[in-house]
Structure prediction request, 177 residues.
Amino acid sequence: MYEDIRNNKIKTGVIVALFTTMITLIIYAVCHMCGYGESAIIFSMIFAIISSIATYYNCDKVVLASVQARPATREEDLQLTNILDGLMLASGLEDKPRLYVVESPQPNAFATGRNPKNAVICVTTGLIEKLNYRELEGVVAHELSHIKNYDIRLSAVISVMVRFYSNFIRYVLPYYI
Prediction:
């Protein structure tokens, strides 16, 4: 387990470094073609580093916004909050993840965030309606395992960076080329 956690942390670092390098090169090429000269590399590096840092620290917020998730409340989602409370006792995690619900008929759940302190578990209403208590508990336990193994960091950072840079390439680059 500890080797998997270490490997996920290393993979995340490598991916962030590769994306930062890639966006630096793309912005540099565009700036150079537009005649900005050698100052283009400084601008592109600063932009790439700032966007990578912002992506890393806000990946959970971006993912939640993209699925239009709402925070789970005891009043509306008592069963789900009780399940998470019970599983926290057995999980060994120090920090309780935030719990969100997506209004969707599709049965699905996922965990996101950059580490266990900033973790989020998100469950669709379709999953809540279709599963009984024990099945839902199994799904939430599975998502807690992703948090504990730092799978969430790798998947959240990759999905947000790919989305950010693909939108950058799609909408910004054609404007300058």
In short: The chain has two domains: 2-58+154-176, 67-150.
